[in-house]
Write a structure and sequence with these properties.
With 477 residues, the chain is α+β, with helices and mostly antiparallel strands. It has helices at 6-10, 56-60, 111-115, 125-147, 206-216, 252-273, 275-290, 302-311, 319-328, 350-361, 411-420, 429-436, 449-457, and strands at residues 2-3, 16-29, 33-37, 45-48, 67-76, 84-95, 151-152, 158-159, 171-172, 199-201, 218-226, 239-248, 315-318, 365-371, 387-395, 399-406, 442-448. It is 31% helix and 23% strand. The model has no long low-confidence stretch (mean pLDDT 93). The structure holds 4-amino-1,4-dioxobutan-2-aminium adenosine-5'-monophosphate and magnesium ion (MG). Belongs to the class-II aminoacyl-tRNA synthetase family.
């Protein structure tokens, strides 16, 4: 007897005398029709029970959420919306589910409520679709790099360096916090720590990825990264996953080409392979839109938006050009919305980014050549002495999705930049070594994985695209 998934069974055109399936009951109607889901697809398979043939006590246990094992015949279905169904011959309850206390009822729950039920929320269509897409995107990412000659590198999670130089790190220590040893200056003595120095959770694998790019040529990391920034927004997590390719002998325009090609590839992949989940999420958004005033509705459906990105070039605009556009744009007085930026050299706020992407260019935008003072120390200084070869990619509805740069490959310039922000040379001696021994132009970027999943699924809160979101107020699970 074949054990298959619901997805397999639903794709059958033929009747099969003996099949079996295990899954969780979504609904049980009229003491006769079980809608069974096993996570392999959004669809449920209908299992038809002739109640005369079954014990009443057993039927009572077929409740929403229960795990069951069904055996029977796969037959053509006369019901609407399904080609086949299972005529149940035997049924076993694997795990009961008390209908009084099971939190996931067969009705629409709010996303906020489901966030509190993170361990059960993938039993709903919305979250199972989102998480299947998350899995498919991960696969597509590895596939892209594999097909393009990149090596997958595992960068460390515990590290002594601050890759972004922004001081947003979670400390890692095994010191007894009730008895923290102090040095002569009264400061915590990390030499008494297990690692003999201050260590933290990585904010980015970039610096280590650079070392491997400078020997293996093309590498990427894809792993968890951590930021101790206290930002409670719908786009920030304390723990998020980042994809970071790094390539030797590649300059900034090459970096832009790589990022654009890569992002188009993974979007095409899910459009081709995950149509069912995408259509479901698309309909969900369109239903939501219907309840909104016209002005707030999405100009494109989810799938149209994904296709738009795969079929059109990203707009490449320098920071200086972007500032000019913002300066010359009319602030929306009615909404008291200021797009205006007074000074060259200030960082763009998310409202500026949104204006550029959603109102002005109406397509993904790659902003490059940012002022040096608002970007990280490792970025290649341009000949103007003021700007660096940085690039941020901005996406509609998301804002910044990618941050990257051509790296500073000149030893002296890098040392000066580190000194300017008090990064001791002996902390990054190995990073400086790369500039001493066979230095060369190289570049890379970091794509925030959850922001990509948000874009693909249309979910508007980052907490809804990662299984167990870590945010300043939430680490319950
Ligand atoms: O712009 P960021 O900070 O760049 C870096 O970390 C570089 N070292 C990457 C590189 O060049 N290899 O972060 C890269 C991306 C952002 O564009 C954003 O998509 C995402 O990571 N990101 C976050 N996502 C969720 N929550 C946060 N707190 C995030 N911070 C950054
Ligand atoms: Mg950034």
């Amino acid at each position: 007897m074949n054990s298959r998934t619901v997805a397999d069974l639903l794709s059958q055109d033929i009747t099969i005398p003996e099949v079996e399936i295990k899954g969780w009951v979504r609904t049980f109607r009229a003491n006769r029709f079980i809608a069974l889901n096993d996570g392999s697809t959004l669809q449920n398979i209908q299992c038809v029970v002739d109640f005369e043939n079954f014990d009443e006590a057993l039927l009572k246990k077929i409740t929403t959420g229960a795990a069951i094992h069904v055996k029977g015949e796969l037959v053509e279905s006369l019901g609407k919306g399904q080609k086949v169904e299972i005529q149940v011959e035997s049924l076993e309850i694997l795990g009961e589910s008390d209908p009084e206390t099971y939190p996931i009822q067969p009705k629409k729950h709010s996303l906020e409520f489901l966030r509190e039920q993170a361990h059960l929320r993938t039993r709903t269509n919305t979250f199972s679709a989102v998480m299947r897409l998350r899995s498919a995107l991960s696969f597509a990412i590895h596939k892209y790099f594999n097909e393009n000659g990149f090596y997958y590198m595992h960068t460390p999670i515990i590290t002594g360096s601050d890759a972004e130089g922004a001081g947003e790190m979670f400390k890692v220590t095994n010191l007894d916090l009730d008895n923290v040893p102090k040095n002569d200056e009264g400061k915590t003595d990390y030499t008494k720590d297990f690692f003999g120095k201050e260590t933290n959770l990585t904010v980015s694998g970039q610096l280590e990825a650079e070392t491997y790019a400078m020997s293996l040529g093309k590498v990427y990391t894809f792993g968890p990264t951590f930021r101790a920034e206290n930002s409670n927004t719908s786009r920030h997590l304390a723990e998020f996953w980042m994809i970071e390719p790094e390539v030797a002998f590649m300059d900034l325009p090459g970096n832009m080409d790589l990022a654009e090609d890569f992002m188009k590839y993974v979007l095409k992949y899910v459009l081709e392979n995950n149509a069912e989940d995408l259509e479901f999420l698309d309909n969900r958004l369109q239903d939501e839109d219907k309840r909104k005033p016209q002005a707030e509705r999405n100009p494109m459906t989810l799938i149209e938006k994904l296709k738009f990105v795969t079929d059109n070039n990203f707009m490449r605009v320098s920071y200086t050009e972007a500032i000019d556009i913002l300066r010359n744009s009319k602030p929306n007085k009615k909404k008291k919305f200021q797009y205006l930026i007074e000074e060259w050299g200030t960082d763009l706020q998310s409202e500026h980014e949104r204006f550029l992407v959603e109102k002005h260019f109406k397509c993904p935008v790659i902003l490059f050549d940012y002022p040096a003072n608002i970007k990280a120390f490792y970025m290649r200084l341009n000949d103007d002495g003021k700007t660096v070869r940085a690039m941020d990619i901005l996406f509609p509805g998301i804002g910044e999705i990618v941050g990257g740069a051509q790296r500073e490959e000149r030893l002296e310039v890098l040392k000066q930049k580190m000194a300017a922000i008090n990064i001791p040379e002996d902390e990054l001696w190995w990073y400086l070594d790369l500039r001493k021994f066979g230095t060369a132009v190289h570049s890379g970027f970091g794509l925030g994985f959850e922001r990509l999943v948000m874009f693909v699924t249309g979910m508007t809160n980052i907490r809804d695209v990662i299984p167990y979101p870590r945010t300043p107020q939430n680490a319950e699970f």
